[in-house]
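Protein 1 of 2
SEQ + STRUCT:
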Amino acid sequence: MTSYQHILIGIDFSSETARVMERGLELADTLDAKVSFIHVVEYTGYLFPPDTPFPVEMNLELQFVEKAKEQLISLTSSMGRSEAVCFVEVGSPTQEIVQIAEEHQVDLIVLGSHGRHGIQRILGSTASGVLHTSSCDVLAVRIRAAE
């Protein structure tokens, strides 16, 4: 059996986040592995037409990042992992997760999978993208759609 040393758990704040965290933490505890968490705020370019007047100090992206940091810290603390490293990145979830994994010597990425079409039906677009571009192992935790 592969002995993982560093597990990165992807957090999307969906209703199934706790299940994904539990699966990743169970593995980390069993293998005595370091665990880190990541949430990616998807970059949309802009949310409003470029000529929409806003106060100079208003930065929605920064607000999204700060809110995500607060939520991630609260969530990891509630799971007894307040010492874990938490990453909040902006961009493409697939690219950011793979980049953080490579930069921090992660050897297993744990993600929820709940895609809808083609290969995405099986894995989910982010899980599929990470699986196909990551140099480390990926565990896709199956998430069932609400019935």
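Protein 2 of 2
SEQ + STRUCT:
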Amino acid sequence: MDQSELTIVNSLLQVIGESPINEIDRSNPDVLAALHVWEQFSNSEQGHGFWYNTETWDLPVNSDGIVYLPSNAVAVDTESTNYIKRGRKLYDLENHSFDFSDEDEVTVDIITEWEYDELPPIMFNYILAKCRWYMVATYALDTNLLQVLDQEVQIAFHKLQVQNLKAKRPSATGSGAAQTLLQNQPQSR
């Protein structure tokens, strides 16, 4: 599947019974609604952190004691620290401060948001499935179609979780819930 803005918009318009378009016209309210839905779900879903968008960074502390985060940072993974993202800066929850002047650099796990054309296809498909479901729930209210799209979301999420487990925690895939997910993975045809 082509991972373009036009593909996203046409898929979201199609599911609510609108005609496809040939180019993005931001003056069209349906196009704007579709783009807004994509942006909303892309940000929220990527914010959970997956194998492709969670990295450990050594960030410099500037002369004012501030640590600035990359512009595409969605969150800071707080499993190992008491740091969070506030705006574009790192914030220390324990000390209630933006001041890191006692450090030269701070090491944190950062979750980043990727553009639609950079996403792994499995993540692109999952976000698109969530958006399609939302468009119907919000604009079309077709309960039969919602059931079909709900299944589409569940399958896409399952595939995403399997990929995430394989890539992020290969040593954890041999037992427990991870093994159950992997065993229940649909076979390729």
